[in-house]
Amino acid sequence: MNAPGTLAIYAGAALAEIAGCFAVWAWMRQGASALWLVPGLLSLAVFAWLLTLAPSDFAGRAYAAYGGVYIAASLLWLWLIEKQRPDTWDLTGAAICLAGAAVILFAPRAIGG
Fold first, then answer.
1. Could you tell me which of 103, 106, 2, 11 has the C-alpha nearest to residue 50?
2. Would the pLDDT of 10 be above 80?
3. Rounded CA gap, 62 and 10, in Å?
4. CA–CA distance from 25 to each of 2, 14, 108 (Å)?
5. Dist. CA 97–CA 65, nearest whole Å
6. Where are the transmembrane segments (predicted)?
7. Would you list the DSSP string of 39-90?
8. Is it the case that residue 62 has pLDDT exceeding 90?
9. Which 3 state secondary structure label does DSSP give 13?
10. What is the mean predicted confidence (pLDDT) over 46-74?
């Protein structure tokens, strides 16, 4: 799979995970109806399914690479949904994590590595 396809899988997974977790957050921390848990759980199921599509022979490697994308997506959520602009340290940390994710996912590997 090519890099844009991989990024699309990870971006979709991040959106699904963040939305699902936010539904639980809204119910537990903001007093939202327990009905929020239904779409939240569905969203978390979509997240798990999407990660199975990641182009890695090993789950741990796919999850590790996804972590960088999740961090960046979480900061976008912070900015767009929660209306709190990420600061320089947030953005620097996300850039470091994305660089690490790219190394994990796209570095050349020995056969079986």
1. 11
2. yes
3. 9
4. 34, 16, 39
5. 9
6. 7-28, 34-51, 63-81, 93-111
7. HHHHHHHHHHHHHHTSS-SSHHHHHHHHHHHHHHHHHHHHHHTS-----HHH
8. no
9. helix
10. 90
**Tokens at residue 85, please?**
């602009």
Contact residues for 20 (Cβ-Cβ < 8 A; gap 6+): 39, 40, 41, 42, 43, 44, 46, 47
What percentage of residues in the chain have a pLDDT greater than 90?
69
The residue behind tokens 């890695």 is 56
The set of residues, in sequence order, having a beta carbon less than 8 Å from that of 100 and lying 6+ positions away, is 68
The 10s digit of each residue's pLDDT in 71-112 is 999 999 999 999 999 999 999 999 999 999 889 888 888 776
Does 65 or 96 have the greater pLDDT score? Answer: 96
Q: Report yes or no: 39 and 29 within 8 Å, Cβ to Cβ.
A: no
